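Incident log, entry 3
Record: non-specific serine/threonine protein kinase (501 residues)
Problem: checksum mismatch between cached and fresh output.
Input:
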Amino acid sequence: MLEADAIERVPTGINGFDQVAIGGLPAHRPTLVTGTTGSGKTIFAGEFLARGIAKYDQPGVFVTFEETPDAIRRNFVSLGFPIEQWEAEGKWAFVDAAESKDEEAAVVGAYDFGALLSRIEHAVHRIGASRVVLDSLGAVFARFADPGIVRRESYRLSSALTSLAVTSVITAERNSEYDGVSRYRVEEFVVDNVIVLRNVLLQERRRRTVEIVKLRGAPHRTGEWLFTIDPREGFVVIPLAFLGMPSTTAASTRVSSGNAGLDRMCGGGFYRDAIVLLSGPSGSGKTLTSLKFLEAGVAEGERCLGFTFDETREQMRRNAAGWGIDLEAMEEGGQLQVVCDYPEVASLEDYFIRIRRAVMDFQPQRLVIDTLSALERIATPRALLDLVIALGAVVREHRITTLLTSAPTSRFTPVETPSIARELASLTDVTIALRYFQNAGMIKRTVAVVQNRGSAHDEAVRQVSIDSDGMHIGAPVATLDDMEAVGLDAPPWPGVIGDDI
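Fresh output:
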């Protein structure tokens, strides 16, 4: 509990949510969770109960108005929650308020809340529950045409739950993502705490967010926070679920980038736990650098993991073979795992879960993501930044040397992308820029180490050539004195470079 926070909290145990709530939900109070269809209300509510039992040994009562208990048991089995076992142990109890739904639907305004509250009270006392979930009130309130009745019954329900001294979650529907908090626009006024779940359609893609609208008397983080629903891990708030992990001692050992020239520019290679951002337009050498980085790791006996979003596996193997790198042999040897995919087949949040799961399962010492720019096709810049923040927490915890690549929109125009490239650079330890320039009717390449935290590095902008043996870093480009031409932005086009390089 924070010093200024006099409200007792109940941790939900939901991945990342307690960091948003700064400790959990206020104890002994009802919290309204609203959202449109498919926004994750039932998952949130069910996890509140399940994780309360699994993590804190706090029994709970689930009051269902729509789904049957059997359906809820089945839906939560995939998350590893043994609801039937908990029922047998007296830790979980259902109050099935859906049984008489069809029968009473025709009697508008005749729902007996008194009987429902008696059933809830009995279940709470029977198992000693400290948590209660009601999912969802919309099925009941749909019977009342008068918002005044909805408000009165909401207040009655909220007061009854408070008198039971339980911490409760009440779910309710919304009509749209950004038009009011609840369907009847009154429910939020009779409870102390309101959480909104959104499932926004943006650029033909769904993006889930959670926002705490109010926790009366209790501080909390504001704004919308990205979350996903993972089939194995359930409700996961990104990136907060992965921040605050135990810090590890910063590595002082170095690993090779796979290019001796680049190692020298970086002061002797990358630190073992470094996150490296390699920025450059298409064809400038990002994939080659990534492959050499992986090859160097395998040569040192390390496990290496690569995700590529621009090429198929066959293309990647062919291109690698052209530089003398046998990806197939490295994969068959068990030291390399490569995942090739198109970003459009999943959401950004799903990709983060996949990458994290691969890291946990394969335990690599090196990781490559090639390229972040491809992921920007399916996500907003803010969402991509959240992914990188979360990914950074995961790889730093496991001291994985990580190489991220990004590309400008155009090969020749001074347009910056990903649009968050500068923010990404601030999250990484090493920033390397590959660029093109024009010289004497030829297109040539440069490389510059823009930043290298905690280490001296070569500040020269050096010319780069690529042949069948790989990338070769040459002498400084003496007359290239426009810093923007070698930093994170694209070079001026056409370039004006002297002939003496």
